[in-house]
Amino acid sequence: MPSAPQSPNTARPEGEPSIRSGHITEYTFRAISAWPVLATCLALVLAGAWLFYLAGHPPILSPALPVVGIACFLLTFFLLKGLIILQPNEAAVCLLFGKYKGTLTQAGFCWLNPFYTRQKLSLRLKTQETGPLKVNDAVGNPVEIGAVIIWRVAQAARATLEVDNYGLYVSAQSETALRLLASRHPYDPTEQQDAQPTTGTGTGTGTGTGTGTGTGTGVPAPADAFSSITLRDGSDVLASILLQELQLRMAPVGIDVVEARISHLAYAPEIAGAMLRKQAASAVIAARRVITQGAVSIIDDALADLEARMGHQLEPQQRAAMISNLLVVLIGDREATPTVNTGL
Predict the structure, then answer these.
(1) CATH code, 184
(2) Cβ–Cβ under 8 Å, residues 184 and 229
(3) Is the pLDDT of residue 113 over 80?
(4) Residue 109 located in a structural domain
(5) pLDDT, tens digit, for every residue of 151-176?
(6) In DSSP terms, which residues pair with 148 in a beta bridge?
(7) Do 75 and 161 share a structural domain?
(8) Strand 108-111 and strand 83-86: pairing?
């Protein structure tokens, strides 16, 4: 008897492109063992051969014997057509005169209705490599991205009857989902900060003649205006997002996506050199900022200690000269060259 149909939930978030839900309801059934049928076929072959033998040897001479023998052979060929062998994790979708009759998942040597049209397909895990694809990220920089997707056929009837070629369907949907993912996120946090707009607020005063002055400060736009996840640092989160997107796209045609991982991520060759220099410059700026903050702290402590020991405040000119000299020594890349002021 057919088992109860299973219909996955394929609802998509609001605003997302919808994928047509499958109209095929899969039913599974069990076939009978092929060994009794094979024994019957062997008996029919022997009976047909014996009837042909008797038809040519007196005293039994009957024109019906060859006809019965031919019928035995034809029935044998008809029964043999229903034999099928399924390996573990294989399925056969059965059609009778164009109408879906059920899916056979029973492994072994089985016999089906010889009038069934059968299409076998594998239920094993498969690996799909997508990319590398050239895509523009959220801020417009061209990047190369690739992914590895592990999937399997969960409902053989839908995979066979809903799409013409489910392998090509998986490939096309994987590429589409990967492009969509890359276009929604920046490559790294630096690009995200550069692309994030600011909103200005300010106050001003003016005279009646039409002149006025005003000041304003920039405030970053709300964080939800841009995604906080980057392609370079959010691999686990992006893999989860990609997996959910693929599952929503594949479920209507009976495909189950088990895992999705980003396997390749890099800047496109035409901008790779420039972006690497930008990253190096950002690292240098960050290092300089730390060095400068440390130098200012050292100079502040040194001046305070010196004035405490001298018992009086230094002259502004002396403080400026000392600060300048200490900054040169502490921040400079090269060793400082001492000079002697002779007063000339």
Answers:
(1) 3.30.479.30
(2) no
(3) yes
(4) yes
(5) 999 999 999 998 989 999 999 999 99
(6) 129, 261
(7) no
(8) antiparallel
